[in-house]
Amino acid sequence: MLTLYYAPDTISLATHILLEEVGAAYSTVRIDFKKTQQRSPEYLKINPKGRMPALITDRGILTETPAMLVFVAQSSGRPDLALMDDPFAFAGIQAFNSYLCSSLHINHAHRMRGARWVDANDAAAIAAMQRHVPISVGANYDLIERDMLKGPWVMGERYTICDPYLFTLAQWLETDGVDPKRVPKVIEHRRRMSERAATKKAIAQELA
Amino acid sequence: MLTLYYAPDTISLATHILLEEVGAAYSTVRIDFKKTQQRSPEYLKINPKGRMPALITDRGILTETPAMLVFVAQSSGRPDLALMDDPFAFAGIQAFNSYLCSSLHINHAHRMRGARWVDANDAAAIAAMQRHVPISVGANYDLIERDMLKGPWVMGERYTICDPYLFTLAQWLETDGVDPKRVPKVIEHRRRMSERAATKKAIAQELA
After folding, report:
1. A chain contacts of residue B59, beta-carbon cutoff 8 Å
2. Does this complex have an ipTM over 0.90?
3. What tens digit of pLDDT does each residue of B185-195 get?
4. Which CATH architecture is the domain B2-80+199-207 placed in?
5. Is the pTM for the entire model greater than 0.95?
6. B39 lies within 8 A of chain A by CB
7. Would you say domain B82-196 falls under CATH 3.40.50.1980?
8. pLDDT category of residue B208 using cuts at 50, 70 and 90
9. Alpha carbon distance B66, A95 (integer Å)
10. CATH 3.30.1300.10: does it fit domain A83-195?
11. Which of B18, B76, B106, B121 to mutate against chain A (most A CBs within 10 Å)?
């Protein structure tokens, strides 16, 4: 039995969708960012980083979306969702997810979480970061559109753990200041993902 | 046969050490950052992201350190170096490496690569980022020291792919403004890593 700690409108949705996709037995605990529950002593005992998501397993606690996505696939008997039996294909999946986590998600975070990288009182620097988000995030999406997203799914004909991850980040594409017309394949992928039963169920749970 | 594109004093050292550790057949190509070769048309054909490192394999090109480390272990018949047969243990390895790539390395990069996140001409914002690096990187090392580094190796008794990755980032600990006395376990780990034959050989090659 797994327990997913999540917050609506955060990256936890990627793991949430995958849990539905593999038919995992799991429950959820909602963390309220408006009440800063991710910094509460209770949550910091679960995840000392104070970030979303965290996954409680029979053997301990896991964090970090790229790790959790592989874990959910592998531990549910679906290593095929990460192409794990093929070292090169698996590395391609991991490289894509690593790019999402360390480039796209990070660049996006400079819009709302600038105080991670400058003094929280430095309004000018925080505003400078926010102004740059459409450029940095836009460049990430240009590369994804041109070189990475094979279509119809990220890795081609097969749905993999890359798909719910890209879908979740692409929720923020417009608010990050990227014109959706610039990345038609990403938008088509987002639409295709939104039609899957697992995606609908995870989103419905989070909005309930 | 593998070919590693690397640049001295960058994160490519982590993969370089692991290639030595597993006894892989590989050659290297040095990229000169002083000549901005990572942005040359030739290198951008290999890695359109213009970043280090890249690994040329028989089946294509791989990028992103967390992906490459797993690939080198798995494809060289050493999946044990990533504890890949145990989904929970493997997820722990991936979570650690994901934290290095998306938190520690990113925070470090705000010292020298601030123009990724603000206008390159905004000297005040870039300086504001630089001033914050000792705080953000210091917080990462505090967490690693307290909660993550089990000792003697990152994952405990067994050397894994986490070790060359942490070692490489810890090269920059002092220049990132972190007092080494604050993180004795990290410093001891760095010393222990520096004594391994594979580490010595990779560093010697890069400095040659």
Report:
1. 88
2. yes
3. 999 999 999 99
4. 3-Layer(aba) Sandwich (3.40)
5. yes
6. no
7. no
8. confident
9. 7
10. no
11. B106
